[in-house]
Structures are given as C-alpha cells and as structure tokens.
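Field notebook, page 512. I keep forgetting to write these up properly, so this time I am using the form the group agreed on. The chain and the ligand, adenosine-5'-triphosphate, are recorded exactly as supplied. Prediction of the bound pose follows.
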Amino acid sequence: MTQDELFKILVAHCKEYGFIFPSSEIYDGLAAVYDYGQMGVELKNNIKRYWWEAMTRLNENVVGIDSCVFMHPKTWVASGHVSAFNDPLIDNKDSKKRYRADNLIEDFLGKIEEKIAKEVAKGRKKFGDAFDEAQFLATNPNVLREKAKYDEVHSRYLAAENANDLKAYRDIIIDCGIVCPISGTANWTEVRQFNLMFSTQGSTTGNADDVLYLRPETAQGIFVEYLNVQKTGRMKIPFGIAQIGKAFRNEIVARQFIFRMKEFEQMEMEFFCRPGTEMEWFASWKENRMKWHVNLGMGAENYRFHDHEKLAHYANAATDIEFNFPFGFKELEGIHSRTDFDLGNHQKLSGKKIQYFDPETGESYVPYCVETSIGVDRMFLAVLSHSYKVEELPGGDSRVVLGIPAPLAPVKVAILPLVKKDGLPEKAREVLDVLKYDFKCQYDEKDSIGKRYRRQDAIGTPFCVTIDNDTMTDGCVTVRDRDTMEQTRVAISELRAIIDSKVNMSNLLRNL
Ligand code: ATP
C-alpha cells in the first residue's frame, strides 16, 4: 500500500471514530496540525503511561520533570538550534510545492534499494533452493549497475551533507533527474536553508528585541534543570531525567499526517554518566528501548536500528529505531550519545558551574549524556497503522478491526445489554459499576448486537461483555474476544480477573 493510500484510509477512520481530527477543521484545517479526539486521547495517554512508567518506575535512577515550552532565548543559542537547526528546502516552480532536498535524494536512493531487492526476489524465485544471495549480489549485472548508481549518489549526498553544501544538493537532484511527484517536472528553485524554530515576541529579559522560541525539543528543559534535579534529588551519576511534553517545528513537508507535525509531543530521557562510559550506556539504552518496543507484541521483525552516517553537531554516536510502517521503515525513535555538548555549552553561556563531583573518582566533571527520544504521535501512528486490519468473515461479511495491544486500547471493555428491556440495561449498569474503577468501559445499548460489536472492533476494544436474559438468573455474561471473536460464558464475579489478565499495564511492564 502506498503512503498516500494508507493515510487516506487512516485519516478517514481516525476521524469517523474520534481518534484524530484536523485542527480547526471548521476553518478548513491547518496544515500538519491535528487534534486528538475522545478515543485518540485515551490511546495517547496509554502510550505515554507505558513509556513514563517504564522509565521512571522500572529504573530507580530515572526521575521525571515537566518543564515549560518557553525558555530563556540563550538556551537555544547554547544548544546550537539558532545557528544549526536548519533543513535544506527546495521548491518546484510548476507545482509550487516545497520539499526537503535531502528527503528527495533519500527517496531516490530508497527506490534504487527497492529495485535491488526486486532483482534479488526474482533471482530467488528463478533459482529456488540453489539461490546464493551473496553471490547473486556480487555478480548479477542489473544489481551491479544499480549498486554503482547507488554508491555514486550516496557518496555525493554524504559529501553535500557534511559540507552543508546547498548547491551540491541541487546538483544531485538535477543530475539524477529527480522530479516533483505532483508536477512531474524538474523545474526546481535553488536550495535554501530554513530554520525550523517557531518564534514569538517576548520581553523576559527586559530587552524589547527578545525573541522567544517555542521549544523544538523537550531535551533542553532537562539540561537547564540538571543542577536542580541532581541537587534536590541527591542524584548520583549515572542517573536519568525523563520528560514528556510538546515540541514545535516549522516542518516544510506537511503531507504526512501525524508522522510529521508542526506541534507534536516528545518523550525524552537524558541519561547522565561519567565521561568515557557513554558508549556502554549508549549500547545499554539501545537494548532497553528496543525491548520496550518489541514487548508490545507488534512483531520484532518490524523494528530495526539505523545508525547515523552523519552525526548531529552534538553527538558522538547516534542510531534510530525504525518501524516498518505500511509505507516502509521510517524513524520512530532516536538514540544519541550527546557527549557534554549541551551541559558544557549551558555552563559557558550562563556562567554557572554545571559540574558533578564524583565521590568515587574524587574528580569534578561536566557529565556526558545519552538521550532516548521518541515522538508520541509517531508511536501512535505506528500502533494505529500496524493495528488496522480489514478481515473477511465467513458468510462474505467483513470487519474493520484495530488489533491495538490490549493495555494501550482506548476502551478496555464494552458493556452491552442484549435488548433495551426486561431489566437488562439495569443489570448491565450493575456490571459497569463493578468494572469501571479498574477499566475504561463503554456502555452501549443502541442497534443490533452485531453492529455494536463492529463499532467496538473499529476502536480496538479487547472485550465485549453481553448481558442477556439468562444473566438475570445465572449471573453469567457472554465475553467476546476482539481478536478471535470467540464468545465464552463466564460468571460476573470472574470478569474482573479475565479482563485484567489481558489489559493490565503492570503485566506489560513486568515483561520488560
Ligand atoms: P526526522 O528525521 O524524521 O525529521 P528527527 O531526526 O529530526 O526526525 P529528532 O530530532 O531525533 O527527529 O526527534 C526525536 C523524535 O521526535 C523522532 O524520532 C520522532 O519520533 C519525533 N519527531 C520529530 N519531529 C517530529 C514531527 N515533526 N512530528 C512528529 N514527531 C516528530
């Protein structure tokens, strides 16, 4: 499925069932800005809870904070964002559409990789069991031709990136015949640098010319609070500070639903350690974070690490955890070894000593830092796009079901009286009163039971509990499982434990 096709389906589904709405839709919306609806906010909160508790409960030495969007403007000078948080942008003069020059080249390289993969698939089909992939890759003329093209463009691209050479980006685009997907032409403008930070006017420092930035990452809030947390929490290195909060970036490409938004949420953790130990922590957090993802049960094969070839100005090692979205593997989370870049620069610019006295070595130093940074919204898209399924049912019927990992599901259980009479609604509300303190429940008595099941499938509710006439005498209800559609008769007194065994967040955390 192409990205556009998938987004069309997901956007429609998200809107129909109250997950995500385009922002200010009555005014025709605002590009790359979305609101979460009544279902979306529940799923989003559950994702955040899973992350927050994994970070701050399972790691004794990780604590959380909640810092502000607005920060002293010097913060962004120290962090390097004022001078270096730029994207190279290019416009197509015919379609008037704007692109990131680096993304156009990366997509071009991705297409070459796809061609090579197709050749390999063909070879495998032709040669069957005798197929030797390594030999095929080293000798097949079509593969060699594509590989040579890839290597040539890739090395030019790396050189352009490293030298920040805007003309070189454009030359690659022209030489490779990359065209605008809308107009189909190569009528490109020059490449320009574009700073991604939003700014507004403020006078926090008493200077009327002050620019206030909307933070493009939450991490800096952690760095500027490092001393306060370390001192008041009597934290000993190594330790981490976690934070969930909004970030803002003036993204050029606004056609990627919630994958790339102008206002989004990040879950970031900065782990402070002794200089020289950062690579061990980098490796350990890579493993920790991958485990967190795989633990959700969305398939270990759907995640991979992608090490950065070009390191950001602050990093000495960096990798992405990529997820296999239906439109290909894309970055879901970044893990960076940020050295002492941030604390060191804040120390310089603020004139305040930001150092740790290490009682074990008897030395004082600016701590090194390993960061894990994941977008809540991107995680939401990973869960949603992986969960969305259209299933054919016996009898020619079909259903749309969201197979969301049960502990993350917005509603855990639906309480459904079979009919709206004979005391069934009252009995159903009694069941609701038993369950509502532990689980997010939804009561629904409208329409046929089949329609109600479909509605719950479409929002990913793991359990439907039906109250029928027999319930009044035998105290049992029918429990329907979202994934298997199996129905079992159980006593009301057993319900809590049955539901809990599948949706309990603590169990999910216990497996980590
Ligand atoms: P990309 O290369 O996709 O622009 P990035 O490398 O700039 O991402 P980071 O600065 O490492 O991203 O941010 C950490 C995480 O924040 C990303 O892995 C992603 O999950 C999320 N994120 C970044 N930008 C956005 C955005 N515009 N919308 C939604 N999530 C985002």
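OBSERVATIONS:
- The first strand starts at residue 20 and ends at 22.
- The mean pLDDT is 94.
FOLLOW-UP: compare against the apo run.
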